[in-house]
């Protein structure tokens, strides 16, 4: 069919609008990368855009000399991998029974589970619970408090409900029990949903810092994001102290503080950004379909 003039105008306007929105979203990250690769004096004068000026990698050299960055990387990777595995196992174990029509009382259980999305015990009661179970300053305090997300479980439950019932019946006729149906039929057909929900969980663990700030005391257990927070705040405190004392020459270390801050942000965000393109193709099928069906 021949397109009308108004259709052409709409498509051009839509393309220009999407390009504009992409530019708005990409600019902050491109700026951070450019600032981390630019000369510190240029960054201090605010003369950096999305292209590095006075290209150098001194900030990255300083960052990788910082031993706590490496320990933070190790801890963050462990928290992300173990936490995501625990999240997915519990989410699947919760979503699958609630998706079966023959499960007696599933509506009641779904109601009580959904209530937790709107009400929580609060920070202090949660802290007391962690202390009573002797989880403070341990590896598991970063995993167990957020072991399952009600929203993600509901999305996965809805996805399971959209699978053909005939496949389950055929597996039962062939001799599969409920666990066999889950492992051999449901999970292989739910790759998109599992990958999408897993990505959500992984990003949450990778960016988590508040639980570490509240529950951890040992620096060796700090995740990368908490070290990033401390570095950024320390730079700010140094700047405030220098302004209050009337200092003019802040020295070489303070001169590159901004570039180090930007370099740490890039180092912290790069791994999860590298993983995202491999998972992105599952997002529409796994999240949108799972949230709208049934």
Describe this structure in words.
The structure is a single chain. By secondary structure, the protein is an all-alpha fold. The chain folds into 2 domains: 5-44; 61-292, MetI-like fold, CATH 1.10.3720. It contains 15 helices and no strands. The chain is globular, with a radius of gyration of 25 Å. It starts with a helix and ends with a helix. Mean pLDDT is 81; it is low at 239-244, 246-255 and 289-294.
Unreliable stretches: 239-244, 246-255, 289-294
Give the full name of the CATH homologous superfamily of the largest domain.
MetI-like
What is the overall shape?
globular
Q: Tell me the helix content.
A: over 70%
């Amino acid at each position: 069919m021949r397109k009308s003039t108004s259709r052409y105008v709409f498509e051009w306007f839509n393309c220009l609008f999407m390009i504009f929105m992409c530019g708005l979203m990409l600019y902050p990250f491109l700026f951070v990368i450019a600032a981390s690769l630019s000369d510190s004096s240029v960054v201090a004068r605010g003369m950096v855009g999305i292209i590095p000026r006075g290209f150098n990698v001194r900030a990255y050299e300083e960052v990788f000399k910082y031993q706590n960055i490496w320990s933070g990387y190790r801890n963050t990777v462990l928290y992300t991998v173990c936490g995501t595995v625990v999240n997915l196992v519990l989410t699947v174990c919760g979503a699958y029974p609630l998706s079966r029509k023959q499960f007696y009382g599933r509506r009641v259980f779904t109601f009580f589970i959904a209530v937790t999305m709107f009400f929580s015990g609060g920070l202090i009661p949660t802290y007391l619970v962690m202390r009573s179970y002797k989880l403070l300053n341990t590896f598991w305090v970063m995993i167990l408090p957020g072991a399952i997300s009600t929203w993600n479980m509901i999305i996965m439950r809805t996805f399971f409900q959209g699978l053909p019932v005939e496949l389950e019946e055929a597996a039962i006729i062939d001799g599969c029990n409920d666990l066999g149906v889950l492992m051999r039929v449901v999970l292989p057909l739910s790759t998109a949903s599992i990958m999408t929900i897993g990505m959500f969980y992984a990003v949450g663990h990778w960016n988590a810092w508040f639980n570490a700030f509240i529950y951890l005391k040992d620096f060796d257990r700090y995740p990368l994001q908490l070290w990033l927070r401390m570095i950024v705040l320390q730079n700010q405190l140094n700047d405030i102290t220098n302004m209050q004392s009337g200092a003019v020459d802040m020295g070489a270390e303070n001169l590159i503080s901004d570039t180090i801050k930007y370099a740490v942000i890039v180092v912290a965000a790069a791994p999860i950004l590298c993983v995202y393109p491999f998972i992105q193709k599952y997002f529409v099928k796994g999240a949108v379909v799972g949230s709208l069906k049934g």
